[in-house]
Write a structure and sequence with these properties.
Blueprint lengths: L17 E5 L4 H13 L4 E6 L10 H15 L6 E2 L3 E2 H7 L5 E5 L9 H6 L5 E5 L7 H8 L4 E4 L8 H16 L6 H12 L1
Helix pairs in contact: 1-2, 1-6
């Protein structure tokens, strides 16, 4: 049996190099942030256990179901992956050092993260959102020791973890993400892949 592509109904968006790293939240809030992260083009989700994390056991089947549901809703053909939950220390030890990691820090008083995001161009990056209660002072010091980790502020207000996730992912996409890829670029990429 031989199949021939006659027509493509729509273009598959380019797979992003945006990683969402998060301290697990309670069920309803976790469902929400997983769905929003998928909708916003995250390719990998990393649950990270911190000092203030209230939920240390996560239901991977539930996360996978949320990934599938959000992908179907948004027409995403390439499902994001979800890594197993690990401690912050283990997470940082295993993080690809070529990828910038922006951790959202409510104590950072520099309220404009855009210059820092732009400085890193379009290289792969991760966004790390802390738990309810934020990162401990010890964790802040630990995070800042790594040359690939950058502390960013989401403004003068303290946001809930689920709100911070949406705000941070929106900021990254608007500043340096795939929102800047136009239809013409998608057509060129798609035409080259069909040859």
């Amino acid at each position: 049996m031989v199949a021939r592509l006659i027509r493509q109904e729509r273009l598959q968006p380019i797979h992003s190099d945006l990683f969402y790293c998060f301290a697990p939240l309670k069920h309803m809030r976790l469902d929400y942030v997983i769905q929003k992260a998928v909708e916003m083009g995250v390719s990998v989700l990393y649950p990270v256990i911190t000092h203030h994390t209230q939920v240390t056991r996560i239901n991977m089947a539930r996360i996978e179901a949320n990934i599938i549901e959000a992908s179907e809703q948004c027409g995403i053909l390439s499902l994001p992956k979800c890594a197993p939950a690990v401690s912050l220390e283990t997470f940082l030890e295993n993080w690809d050092k070529a990828h910038a990691l922006f951790f959202c820090d409510e104590l950072n008083e520099s309220y404009n993260p855009i210059p820092l995001l732009r400085k890193h161009g379009t290289k792969p990056l991760g966004v790390l959102i802390g738990p309810e209660g934020g990162f401990s002072e010890e964790e802040r010091v630990f995070l800042k020791k790594y040359p690939f980790v950058f502390s960013v502020s989401l403004g003068p207000r303290i946001l809930r973890a689920d709100t911070a996730a949406v705000a941070a992912l929106t900021l990254v996409n608007a500043t340096m993400g795939d929102w800047s890829i136009g239809q013409e670029t998608c057509n060129i990429i798609q035409n080259n892949s069909l040859k």
